[in-house]
């Protein structure tokens, strides 16, 4: 019995379909980008509301001077995120000290966000985060 007679009878058709899909590449033009969802272009089943997401979270570095001084605790912060996902105002709500506040500001400035989407449109929003510093 030859090998082809032992394979599933539809394997050649399935292999051809798989090759076509692989050759066509991603559904969007540039690698690493996702298609944007708008009310006009979204299929009826696509969600038109998407929560704010952190696409790249940078953790703050515990400053050596703060650690040496025994400074520890939680920094609570509110960050404004615009409709393009860029950080705006960074407001420190609570902090044990300026050294820890500055470490949090620097980390937030390096982080990246995907904006909140409401009814298919990206909108500006605010988010709150807490950063804990303990020896």
Q: What does this molecule look like?
A:
- This protein has 135 residues and is α+β, with helices and mostly antiparallel strands.
- The chain has helices spanning 3-6, 11-24, 64-68, 98-110; strands at 53-56, 73-81, 87-94, 112-114, 116-118, 121-123, 125-133.
- Residues 10-44 have low confidence and may be disordered.
Walk me through the topology.
Elements: H1 3-6, H2 11-24, E1 53-56, H3 64-68, E2 73-81, E3 87-94, H4 98-110, E4 112-114, E5 116-118, E6 121-123, E7 125-133
> How is the main sheet built?
3 strands, antiparallel
Average of per-residue pLDDT values: 75
Taking strands numbered 1, 2, ... along the chain, how are they ordered across the largest sheet? 3-2-7
The end-to-end distance, rounded to whole angstroms, is: 70 Å
Q: Number of helix segments?
A: 4
Q: How do the SSEs run, as a string of H and E?
A: HHEHEEHEEEE
The coarse overall form would be elongated
Total strand segments: 7
Strand proportion: 25-35%
Radius of gyration: 24 Å
Briefly note the structural class of the backbone: alpha+beta
**Amount of helix:** 25-40%
Could you name the ranges where pLDDT drops below 50 across 5 or more consecutive residues?
Answer: 10-44
